Every structure is written in C-alpha cells, then in structure tokens.
C-alpha cells in the first residue's frame, strides 16, 4: 500500500511526527505551507492563527506536489489550533476533496493539551467521511520529548500496518 503524509507544522512538532511516520511506514511526505506565514511569536501567534482557524479560513498555499493517484492511504497531520485542525489543512482538503473521497484518510494532531478528538471529527465532516480511524493525538513531541510519545507513534504505525494486512 502506498502512503502519503501531508502535513502543516508551524513550529516543528507536527514535522517531527511526520518524519517519524515517514521513516517507519516508508511513506512519501509533503509539507504544505501558507503563502503568507502566520505570526510565530507572542500574542499575535495565538490571535491570528486562532482567529483564522475559528473563521474556517483557507489560506493560499505555496504550490506543492501531490499526485493522489499514487496513493491508497493519505495521512493528514497538523497542530491543533483553537480546537480544530490548522487552516492550511482545510485548504488542502478542499483542493483535493474529490481525490480524497476515494482514499483511506487518517490523521495525526499535535497539541499542547492533548485533546485532538474534536479536530478529527471536524476533519471527517469536512471530508464527508463517517470517521477517521486510526488517529494519533500527541502532546508537543518536539519540545517535550519522551519515550511514551515515541511509543505512541510506533503504535499508530502498527495500526496502519494492520490496515494494510486487512486490505
Ligand atoms: C494559534 C494556535 C492555537 C492553538 N490552539 C491550541 C488548542 O486549541 N489546543 C491545544 O491543545 N493546543 C493549541 N495550540 C498549541 C499547538 O497545537 C501545539 O503546540 C502544537 O504541537 C504545535 O505544532 P507545530 O510545532 O507543528 O506547529 C495552539 C497553537 C497555536 C499557534
């Protein structure tokens, strides 16, 4: 099974997870970026990013390469912003809505609080999927690393490999 990991990361935590997953799953990896970067410091960082997420904005993305035909499974990864997926993921999901409808779509989220469940439900609803499973919710693995978090990533990979066996 061919797997693509499409992710956004502002400050490296989602990037860390995406790269670990890519290694363990031998997946292709695409980092998406908004054309206009969100502020990454101080009050502005939480205000503008949070507002953009709450408003459901779809920021324009730097051109990326993603040939959906090559993949059976697409893993979307992002930081949780204001309880939902970060806005570049909304842009990607909307730009690839038709292609993603035919794929198994999975997701991982990094957050500071550890509660990403709502973001997975919202993503499923945007993609018109019943449910996204399996998912991985992980607390700031780059800035607060631990063996438990590496174990979480490994367990997620095992779940994905099970999918492959059952396919
Ligand atoms: C604009 C903004 C909003 C955030 N909102 C939440 C939130 O609602 N819940 C939470 O647990 N963490 C929240 N965070 C923290 C990030 O989700 C967390 O630090 C994440 O791991 C960052 O990933 P990154 O380093 O890949 O950008 C927020 C961070 C930003 C910048």
What does this structure look like?
The protein is an alpha/beta fold. Helices cover 42% and strands 20% of the residues. The protein has helices at 13-25, 42-54, 87-95, 97-101, 117-126, 147-166, and strands spanning 3-7, 28-31, 73-81, 84-85, 104-111, 135-139. Helix 1 (13-25) packs across helix 6 (147-166). 32% of the residues are buried. The mean pLDDT is 96. Bound molecules: flavin mononucleotide (FMN). Flavin mononucleotide binds at residues 9-15, 45-46, 49-50, 79-83, 110-113, 140. Flavin mononucleotide is lined by residues 9-15, 45-46, 49-50, 79-83, 110-113, 140.
List strands and helices in order, with pairings:
Blueprint: E1 3-7, H1 13-25, E2 28-31, H2 42-54, E3 73-81, E4 84-85, H3 87-95, H4 97-101, E5 104-111, H5 117-126, E6 135-139, H6 147-166
Parallel strand pairs: 1-2, 1-3, 3-5, 5-6
Antiparallel strand pairs: 3-4
This protein binds flavin mononucleotide.
Residues 9-15, 45-46, 49-50, 79-83, 110-113, 140 line the site of flavin mononucleotide (FMN).
Nearest-integer average pLDDT? 96
Number of domains: 1
Helix content: 40-55%
Spell out the helices and strands N to C.
EHEHEEHHEHEH
Which radius of gyration do the C-alpha atoms yield? 15 Å
Distinct compounds present: flavin mononucleotide
Taken as a percent bin, the fraction of beta residues is 15-25%
Unreliable runs, pLDDT <50, ≥5 residues? none
Q: How is the main sheet built? A: 6 strands, mixed
How do you describe this structure in short?
By secondary structure, the chain is of the alpha/beta class. The chain contains 6 helices and 6 strands.
